[in-house]
Design a protein that fits this description.
Blueprint (H helix, E strand, L loop, with lengths): L2 E4 L1 H5 L4 H11 L5 H17 L4 H9 L7 H16 L5 H8 L5 E9 H10 L4 E10 L2 E7 L6 H13 L10 E5 L5 H4 L4 E5 L3 H10 L3 E2 L3
Parallel strand pairs: 1-2, 1-5, 2-3, 5-6, 6-7
Antiparallel strand pairs: 3-4
């Protein structure tokens, strides 16, 4: 059995679902544009620069989920998928996933599972390892549950998920991780086949120094 892991934002997707979800809520009038748009852009810039405080960001990203009933959020998400996500799904990304049919595949992403679970399903990927939003009686509390799936936390969350599958990373003869971001270096270093996908400058340099393949889905 071979393990294949896909980052989502700016890897399988030609864009960032986390950023786009906040922009979608601003456009819907759910979030105040003057208050939230600059903060959303600032957090995105910090992520790209490698300076993001994940807990500050999650407080910003998850609190709006707690202010609306789950049924309303689900209806918004269906519209979000149609308007924002489907145009970001390229045939080349679907083809990449298709080449790994028969392997144990998972999307592993820092973006919360409410936003990303329908996207993983759209790609036909059964397993999702993501940051989890805390819930009470089926409604979101605005807090994060457990370890955020970010940087070293991605490794921890993967290891926990593999234990639940009665296996571990070393048991796979081969393992892949496709990512665009230097934030994913801790996990990229753990697999037998790290692949940089349309990488940021820091990851491109690291891939070149270490002989990792660099591909484009653009």
């Amino acid at each position: 059995m071979r393990l294949v892991l896909f980052d989502l934002d700016n890897t399988l997707l030609a864009g960032d679902s986390d950023f786009e979800w906040a922009q979608f809520l601003i456009e819907q009038g759910v979030l105040d544009r003057e208050v939230y748009e600059a903060r959303n852009q600032s957090f995105y810039d910090q992520y790209k620069a490698g300076t993001l405080d994940i807990f500050q960001f999650l407080n910003f990203q998850l609190k709006p989920l707690s202010r609306h009933p789950r049924a309303v959020l689900d209806a918004w998400h269906r519209e979000f998928m149609a308007r924002r996500i489907m145009p970001m799904i390229r045939d080349s990304a679907r083809a990449l996933v298709g080449r790994h049919r028969g392997d144990l595949c998972a999307v592993i992403t820092a973006t919360n599972s409410f936003v990303t679970a329908p996207i993983a399903r759209e790609f036909g990927i059964e397993h999702l390892i993501a940051t989890e939003a805390a819930q009470r009686d089926g409604e979101f509390t605005g807090d994060v549950a457990g370890i955020p799936c970010f940087r070293e936390g991605k490794v921890s969350r993967l290891e926990s998920w593999l234990v639940a599958q009665s296996t571990n990373l070393d048991s796979f003869s081969e393992s892949w991780f496709y990512s665009d971001s230097h934030n994913d270096l801790p996990l990229l270093a753990r697999v037998t086949h790290p692949v940089a996908v349309d990488p940021d400058e820091a990851l491109r340099a690291h891939a070149g120094e270490n002989g990792w393949p660099v591909i484009s889905l653009g």
